[in-house]
Amino acid sequence: MKEESLTLLIHVYRANKSRKEDRLEYIEQARKNVEVIRLLIRVAKDLKIIGTKGFVFLNIKIEELSKQLTAWQKYTVGADK
């Protein structure tokens, strides 16, 4: 989970610093990282590594991040038109 989170952070950073034509690729990679992290959080809950409160908290945060990435992706695509 730590590695995937770090990779997500790097993709967001690269998307933020890249040219418009390269940005979409980094955003898409970040969205894939989010889905893997979401899956890992579910596994952590199923294995009782985290409790229900932690699971809910993390899911809310990951959903917020997912929405931000989706909006950024739509904005970037719209800016290209």
Overview of the molecule:
By secondary structure, this protein is mostly helical. It has one domain. The protein has three helices and no strands. The N and C termini lie far apart (36 Å).
Key descriptive features of the protein:
81 residues; mainly alpha
What is the mean predicted local confidence, pLDDT?
94
**Cα distance spanning the termini:** 36 Å
Number of DSSP E strands: 0
Global geometry: elongated
Radius of gyration of CA atoms, rounded to a whole number: 14 Å
Short description:
The protein is mainly α.
Topology, element by element:
Layout: H1 2-17, H2 20-46, H3 52-80
Helix pairs in contact: 1-2, 2-3
